[in-house]
Structures are given as C-alpha cells and as structure tokens.
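Much of what follows relies on a compact textual record of a protein's fold. An example makes this concrete, so a full record is given next.
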Amino acid sequence: MSGLREKQKADRQERILGAAVRLFRASGYRSVRIEDIARDAGVSVGTVYNYYQNKGDILIAVVAMEVEEVLEAGKAIVGDPPAGAGEALLALIFSYYDHSLEYLSKEMWRTAMALSIDAPGTRNGQLYSDLDDRLAAQVTDLVCALQARGEVSVHHNAPALGAVLFNNLNQNFIDFVKDDGMSLAALRARVAAQTRPLAALISSG
C-alpha cells in the first residue's frame, strides 16, 4: 500500500508542477493564483498546500525539476567528454543552456533568482543554492575527467577551475534571462568566445 501511496503522491505533484508550468508561461508568474493551479491540475487547493506552502515553493520545485534533468544529461558528457578541453566544456555548458527554457520562461527564471536572493536562508533560497552547487560540482567533475585524459594540466586545481567556469556560465545565463531580446544562439556564441581561450590556457597540450 505504501508503494501505491507514493505513486499517487508523485502523480499529484507531477500534475501540480505541470499545471504551474503551463499557467506561468501563459499568464505570467504574478498573475497565476494557487486556485488556478489546483483547478488546472485537477486537485483541490488543500492538496496543493499539502505539498507546497506558497507559489514560490512551486516555482522553485519547477527549477529543481529542470536542474535534475540537466544534471542527469550532463552525466553522459562527463562520462565520455568530446575530444578537446574547449569542446568538452562547451558541450556541458550548452547542454545546460539548451534545456534551460524547457520548463521555465525567462520571466520565471528571473522570479526564481529573485526569490533565492531575497531570502537566502529560507528553504527556497537554500534549495536554489544547493542546485547551483551541484551544477558547479558537475563542471568540476568534467575538469577532473579531462585531467585524467591528459587534456587539462594536472597542475591546475580542479575545484577552483570548476568554480571559475561555473561562475562564468552562470553570470552569462543571468544576463540572458535579464534580456528578453537575447537569443539562445547569442548566449552560446558569447560563452564560446569566453570559454575557448580559457580552455587553451588550461590545456596540457
């Protein structure tokens, strides 16, 4: 019975998050009410509150869903990186960017970032920070893999390099979501222009 209850719980959460994504995209985060999400998900308002305390919780849960999928996809790149430090790093970074608008619009990302910055000590703020830490750790894992393959010098500190690379890709992503006119192609071009020279500097070749 416990297995069935867990399945039903997961199904309800999936429906709530799916409804939130649809409504946030269609009407904007600020315009959507918990009641709207419950109606679209086919659950009661009380059921929504059983899982999420407020609308911000729902939005951060959508961010977490997005990042979990990104991290899972990134494992394949870390496990078998493309040849060359620059191409390997960009493959991972681009996989993050290309999935970034799967569930969240730019407006949703801006709101999620604002929630995390405004209240860093809250559950939402901590969860958002933890997701960033896991992405940074995966970038570091890729640097380690490239060092093991002889494509990045072992004389470089992998965690420090991972932090620098993540901070750069993250700041560029912030600039991207702040600018509604900036295309994904423009973001990729900007980051490629910054990452390739850095890859050349850290390369062992």
Q: What stands out?
A: The mean pLDDT is 93.
